[in-house]
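Now read these lines:
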Amino acid sequence: MVVAPIIAQAWRGGGRQARLAQVLSGTEVVVADNLPSRRAGELLAVAATSDVLDALVALVAADRPGCEVLTSDPDDIHHLLDSLKVKRHIRRV
């Protein structure tokens, strides 16, 4: 599962994206529309941080018990999940 704006952050097109395209073909994409975006803003206020994408990832993880979070920034995700009082396995990629 991936939050839609994360695709924009990683996608650069061209042949180099073959692996990413393959992974995304079998992945549920979560839309970050009005309510999730508002929840992300509220989480950023509580956690006193500013990365919207990390907040969206943390919220998606919080809503899915047992999920694993893959991230290049485990410290921020850990902090945001702590702010939500949620524990998830976080793996650096």
About this structure: The mean pLDDT is 94. The radius of gyration is 13 Å.
